[in-house]
C-alpha cells in the first residue's frame, strides 16, 4: 500500500494507492470526508470511512492525522463532527490550533 499526501486548497489530504501488492482490495475505500462551511477558511470533518475488514489497523488514525496536517498547512479551521475524529482528539489528548467547535467559535 502506498500512502500519498497531497496538500492544496480543498484537495483530499491523503490518498491510499491500492496497488497489486496492497493487502486492501482496490474496491475498498478509506476516506476522511469533509464539507466546506459558509466560511472560506473553515471545513467540517463529518465522516471517516474504513472498510470493516481493515478497522483497528490504525488507518483511521492516519487519515485524521493527515487531515489535521492538511488543515494546518492550508490555514483552515476544522469543525470535527465525525464521532471517530472526536474520539481520536479525546483519546490522544490532541490540541490542534485548527480545531473549533462551531462556526461562531471560528470567527
TrEMBL record:
It comes from the Eukaryota. Residues 38-93 form the N-acetyltransferase domain. Pfam families: Acetyltransf_CG. Transmembrane segments: none annotated. This is N-acetyltransferase domain-containing protein. The lineage of its organism: Eukaryota, Fungi, Fungi incertae sedis, Mucoromycota, Mucoromycotina.
